[in-house]
Specification:
Helix content: over 70%
Number of strands: 0
Strand content: under 5%
Order of helices and strands: HH
Number of helices: 2
Number of domains: 1
Length: 65
Amino acid sequence: MSEVVNLNKVRKNRRREREKADAEQNRVIFGLPGHLRKQARENEALKARRLETQVLSLTDKNENS
């Protein structure tokens, strides 16, 4: 005798699995969330400003000597 299956649960599980696969694919395609991208941009800008300050201070020292 076959087992009784609730078709609604089967459909829901199939849909959840498909949505999980789509979500994983979107994470790969679109990468980081917005707040992390913004934080990374700000960190890069800070590093660039610090580097620029160091370069300017080194060139100033070289010009004075």
